[in-house]
Amino acid sequence: MKRTVKVSLVATLCAALLLAAGCGGAPSQPANQGGSNPPAQSGSQTQSSGGEASSEKQVEIFSWWTGAGEAAGLEGLIKLFTEKHPDIEVINAAVAGGAGTNAKAVLASRMSGGNPPDTFQVHAGHELLDTWVAADKMEPLNFLYESEGWNNVFPKQLIDMMSKDGNVYSVAVNIHRGNVMWYNTKVFADNNLTPPTTFDEFFTVAEALKAKGITPLALGDKEPWTALHLFESVLLGVLGPDKYNGLFDGSVPWDDPGVRQALETFKRMLQYVNDDHAARNWQDASQLVAQGKAAMNVMGDWAKGYFTTDLNLKGNVDFGWAPSWNTEGTFMVVSDTFGLPKGIQHRDATIEFLKVLGSKEGQDVFNPLKGSIPARTDADVSKYDEYSKEAMQDWSTNKLTPSIAHGSAASPGFSEKITQVITVFVTTGDVDQAVADLVAAASAELK
Ligand code: GAL
To answer: Is the CB of 366 inside a 6 Å radius of any atom of ligand 1?
Structure first.
């Protein structure tokens, strides 16, 4: 069995590629995140056993899953794949940086340079459809959905998020939930407090914790997507799912009073976050909750993967959860998918990988480690913990809303503009300016 991991090599190339490609954004140095589960080894060139350059029997998997809370699920999937296909070499070409902070720019550069990875992580929804599908860079996968029976086991709504003009273009490995408040159970018990479910309760609890010298809310917005992640959960809580969804089809204007109110609420909330929020990434912020240095944070349920897989914490013992404030009954959907780019070198091996990724067995290996729930509806529920069982229930009964921060709600261009508005807002707190900028961004997008 051969398995080459070249995470570090790709990560090192990242900054150079970003500059060369003129990809924009604010590339922070790719780094091991959170510490406890670093990229496996510094890589070098892929070698076949005979010493010649890369063999035909290979698959290169491109993602941003490195480091704590991120890598274990992918490693589990690769292990399963390698057991089934010992003759196929796996290249794990992950680029560090939460939510694809660096990986997306590297991917853009490779795609435009005619050097696509064999398969890559991309969110269902606009991030897939408005980019690589619109540019005709992906193969339709209808043949795989038919041969594997996937049309019967993936929810139709999810297939729709990966489809255009009757063709489906990727395979979903998971469903993450974005709108989750995580809390430290001991901090709440020791202070005789009840985890808040509404904004009013949040501010009452936050004031009580602050008075005792405890940071109420952890934030780590060194990578700007995390501030947007918190904001979109607040936006959803203020507007409710129908109006939130309306922001993306043009039926609700971005200067709706609810958007202004959400910005006001978010601004007030920022008074209760850790002073060093701009120096932390998402794992560092979640770690504050894990250690009882902060009481709560809002993060997708990859944080649960981090708590349980990396930190060995127990749900409902060390940490608890609830839908973020005022969002009970709504599920903010984040789905990681992988497709088949046109022009790749290892098409057959990649199809075999996609089959494992979309299989019941593959999903039941990946998701318990990652914190997500399977995209398939026929999972072996006994393999999942209490949190995930609840999430499965909510996923099938709640109203669904797409995430801005994780590529489903809006095109990458629009999402990037919203991210910039919120990044500036965290510093200035200027509600009028933020509303004006959001309206301008939306009018360019939704005309
Ligand atoms: C999301 C992705 C998750 C997780 C998270 C943090 O965009 O869907 O799987 O990796 O970013 O990096």
So the answer is: no
Tokens of 368: 């318990």
The DSSP output letter for 330 is: E
CA of 65 to the centre of ligand 1 (A): 8
HEC string of 118-155 equals: CEEEEECCHHHHHHHHCCCCECCCHHHHHHCCHHHCCC
Looking at the whole model, is its pTM more than 0.85? yes
Using a 6 Å cutoff on CB, does residue 127 contact ligand 1?
Answer: no
Q: Are 407 and 232 a contacting pair, CB within 8 Å?
A: no
Give me the residue label for tokens 């999972």: 379
Determine whether the shortest distance from the Cβ of 104 to ligand 1 is under 6 A.
no
Select from 111, 24, 18, 21 the least CA-distant residue to 62: 111
| Nearest residue by C-alpha to atom 11 in ligand 1 | 99
Out of 177, 282, 334, give the residue to mutate to test ligand 1, the one with the largest number of ligand atoms within 8 Å of its CB.
334
Angle between helices 225-246 and 199-211 (to 10 degrees): 160
Distance CA 222, CA 273 (A): 14
Enclosing H/E stretch for 68: none
Nearest CA-CA partner of 69 in 301, 323, 406: 301
pLDDT one-digit tens code per residue, 31-89? 233 333 222 332 222 333 333 344 579 999 999 999 899 999 999 999 999 999 999 99
pLDDT tens for each residue of 365-382: 999 999 999 999 999 999
Taking Cα atoms as reference points, which of 339, 336, 335 lies closest to residue 351?
339
Burial 112-141 (b: 16+ CB within 10 A, else e): eeeebbbbbbbbbbbbbbbbbbeeebbbbb
CB atoms within 10 A of CB 47: 14
Q: Give the chain's end-to-end CA distance (angstroms, integer).
A: 53
Strand-by-strand arrangement of the 89-92 sheet: 3-5, 89-92, 58-62, 119-123, 336-339, 170-172
**Nearest of 336, 331, 344, 386 to residue 362 by alpha carbon:** 336
**C-alpha dihedral (353, 357, 360, 364), degrees to nearest 10:** 130
Strand partners, 332: 401
The reply to whether ligand 1 has any atom less than 6 angstroms from the CB of 199 is: no
